[in-house]
Amino acid sequence: MSSRLPYQIEILRLVQALNRAQGQTVIMVLHDITLASRYADHVIGLKQGKLLFEGPPSDVVTQESLFDFFDAPLRDTRIDAEPGPVVLSG
């Protein structure tokens, strides 16, 4: 079974490039918080209709917000080459 990740990244890069070139707002629903943090300028975390966090990924994707969102002990880390946080389990 081949990975869909390269295709997801290709589409996100294309959408990001179109957003920058056209100056159009793009609204997407992503279930991968790391990809959302990497490609979005602004993220919103909704759970059961309740707003849990909103803002730039580097500001709002934190260990605390991830726990509230997923009910699991996740942590965020920063990688110099990446603009947003990377989410890790445990």
What can you see in these coordinates?
This protein has a domain at 29-89. The chain starts with a helix and ends with a strand. The chain has 90 residues and is of the alpha+beta class. A hairpin with an 8-residue loop joins strand 3 (74-77) and strand 4 (86-89). It has helices at residues 5-22, 33-39, 57-60, 63-70, and strands spanning 43-47, 50-55, 74-77, 86-89. It contains 4 helices and 4 strands; from the N terminus they run H-H-E-E-H-H-E-E. The strands form 2 sheets. It has a two-stranded antiparallel sheet. The radius of gyration is 14 Å and the shape is globular.
Structural class: alpha+beta
Number of strands: 4
Terminal CA distance: 27 Å
Helix content: 40-55%
Main location: membrane
Keywords: ATP-binding, Cell membrane, Ion transport, Membrane, Nucleotide-binding, Transport
Membrane topology: Peripheral membrane protein
Protein name: ABC transporter ATP-binding protein
Q: How do the strands and helices of this protein lay out in sequence?
A:
Blueprint: H1 5-22, H2 33-39, E1 43-47, E2 50-55, H3 57-60, H4 63-70, E3 74-77, E4 86-89
Antiparallel strand pairs: 1-2, 3-4
Features:
90 residues; alpha+beta; two-stranded antiparallel sheet; two-stranded antiparallel ribbon; 4 helices; 21% strand; globular
Give a concise summary.
41% of the residues lie in helices and 21% in strands. The protein has 90 residues and is an alpha+beta fold.
